[in-house]
Amino acid sequence: MSPSLFCKLALGALAVPSAVFAIPAPATFDRQVPGETTSVNTRAGPIKILIGNDDGWAEGNIRQLYADAQQAGHDVVLSAGAKNGSGSSSLNIAFGKVSGAEYGTIPDGAPQAGFNQTDPRLNYFNGTPVAAIDNGFNVLTKKFWGGAKPDLVLSGPNVGSNLGAITLFSGTVGVANYAVKHQSVPAIAFSGGDETRIPYTALQPGDVSHVYSQLAMTITNQVISSTPFLPAGVSLNVNFPKTSANCAKAEDFKFVFTTIYPLVPTIGCTESVRTPTEADVIASNACLVSISAMGSHKLDVDTAKQTTVFNKLSPILSCADVKDHILSSILPLGTVLGRRHDLEDGVAGTVEGIVDTL
Ligand SMILES: *[C@@H]1O[C@H](CO)[C@@H](O)[C@H](O)[C@H]1NC(C)=O
Ligand SMILES: *[C@@H]1O[C@H](CO)[C@@H](O)[C@H](O)[C@H]1NC(C)=O
Fold first, then answer.
1. Which residue has the higher pLDDT, 209 or 38?
2. In order of start, what are the domains of the chain with their CATH numbers?
3. Which residues lie closer than 8 Å to 140 by C-beta, 6 or more apart?
């Protein structure tokens, strides 16, 4: 941020006496790139979408997803942390007045909650990622939707992958899990392997934030193409691989149904071996996006729910790519274990207890 912008923001703070802080948007500082045209299909019509993340409200990834969801005609509100809250899992803590906001977007000393004066649907909350989405549900739904809950919560795309056991610590996953577990609202957590942080002011057409956002919208559109969007208690954990010369634009990517952990029954394309894990798919370096069905305990859901999700997503899933790029490299755990495992009824309770106290 330029010194002059910071000065204007600081002066704006003095000019706003209310408890809620509105960030003025200097006309000279509008470098936000509008969403590129996507092959978005809004068959289900506009829906109410609440967007959060754990990297902070000014991260390019979340701003681009916000822009693309709006461009697709949805009724979108963003509620995310004033600063990076990576690794906060399901912690729900408010921090009070702002200090050290992401990319200097909010002056130190600003109130705990505030919004962009030009676009009040862009909201920050100085707290953990879950505290920010909690504020979205408890406060912003009244402001924008007459108290109605969102139809869907989107989280991310996170800067960095959230695969396997790492999901337990992810604030991005924590946000999606909060929606499903505490608000009974379906949710999708998106994470991307590319760890380049892009301030929203530096977004450029075709950059990684645009690619991830387009991929996120493709999945979102399939999820909202019919109701219920997802089975009760289920969120999706989605991971995009890093972009590369071969995987440079959204059209280069395919979607694969995965599990978070390997110890679950086989669902989907692979009859003889287990369903590939998220990690199997991302490690394949074959421009494949992993999609897992997560329960409110942050583990894989049972076979019936996985099958429901697989069937719903099947129009966008690629079995050919599983066979070509992944099948040969995964162990047939189904035969090793000799019986079906249902994590939902197994260690789930224990893990849930741990995660809730993080
Ligand atoms: C507020 O929104 C305006 C309009 O989209 C934008 O130009 C400005 O950069 C935004 N500021 C912040 C901090 O989000
Ligand atoms: C965000 O927070 C995480 C966890 O504290 C840390 O590892 C990461 O480096 C932070 N990123 C930035 C850009 O500050």
1. 209
2. 3-356 (3.40.1210.10)
3. 50, 77, 79, 123
